[in-house]
Amino acid sequence: MTHAMRIDVITLFPEILRGGLDCSILKRAQKKGLVHVHLHQLRDYALDKHRTVDDRPFGGGPGMLLKCEPLFRAYEAVKAMGSDTAEPGAGVDVGTSAEAAAETPVDSVEGEGVTATGTVKASEPTPTPTPVTRTILFSAGGKLFNQAMAREWSKVDRLIFICGHYEGVDERVREALADEEISIGNYVLTNGALPALVVIDAVVRLIPNAVGNAESTESESFSFDPADGGGGSDGEGGESSGHIVEWPQYTRPEDFRGSVVPRVLLDGNHAEIARWRRAQAAERTRRNRSDLLPPAPPVA
């Protein structure tokens, strides 16, 4: 992806996202033109004067569900909007039509792209690649979002987020519109706007040039190779395994209220530092995130 990503969020509470989008890396990425985020109020696509978007579930039960009609109308309208990914003059130089180019005089020597009468042959327009769009529905019952998903989605052209609310959405929305159904954790939130903001942050920071130092997105939890004590990638452009959290980090002062930085980090021996980091990362993973570790082999 060499152009700006477009992100669309369909939600009942766009104001929840506005504050986060106007801060820090997300704000800078938008100012740089790396990403364009568009928020869409679901009620704008309701069918009645009361702007109703929910109703009771068939079969009974507590709560309300988001209805098909406004969600389908919102999704179809949003998807038809400009993608922010098309570049001007695709296939033809800006300011020059294909018809005008076909009659531009040149030296009357026949060659590649030139006729014997000295006019430029009209070349075939360069086909514009079809933008890659992913539609994500946020739901407590969805697959658990992780760093691998964030890295994958940072490479697509467009993301459309559908935020669930109340007791969720009509199942037909899930079946017809969503490429993936995602949860950000094993807990329940009041609506899908907060998960949308979390995922936007995780994805946008991985877009090239969004973060000042690209290495900082490689040497962090879930993104570095446990065999690489320096925390970088595998050196060949491949994805790292990422099944481990980051090691402890220290900065100045060296001694703070009697708590001192480990000596190994101060001695300048990079091989020893790498070994220490691997060991510390493995221990922290065992202590805090044992679910990331492969299961122990069965005892014979």
Question: What attributes characterize this protein structure?
Answer:
Alpha/beta knot, single chain, 2 domains, Trp Operon Repressor, Chain A, 300 residues, five-stranded parallel beta sheet, two-stranded antiparallel ribbon
Tally of extended strands?
9
How many DSSP helices?
A: 8
- Contiguous low-pLDDT stretches (5 residues minimum) are 84-116, 225-242
Q: What is the rounded distance between the termini? A: 50 Å
**Which range does the strand content fall in?**
5-15%
Q: Give the integer mean of the pLDDT values.
A: 81
Based on helices, strands and strand pairing, what is the structural class? alpha/beta
CATH class of the largest domain: Alpha Beta
Main sheet makeup: 5 strands, parallel
Radius of gyration computed on alpha carbons? 26 Å
CATH 4th-level superfamily of the largest domain: SPOUT methyltransferase, trefoil knot domain
Q: What proportion of the residues is helical, as a percent range?
A: 25-40%
User: What is the spatial order of strands in the main beta sheet?
Assistant: 2-1-6-5-7
What's the structural domain tally? 2
- What's the CATH topology label of the largest domain? Alpha/beta knot
Q: What kind of assembly state do the chains in view correspond to?
A: single chain
Second CATH tier, the architecture of the largest domain: 3-Layer(aba) Sandwich
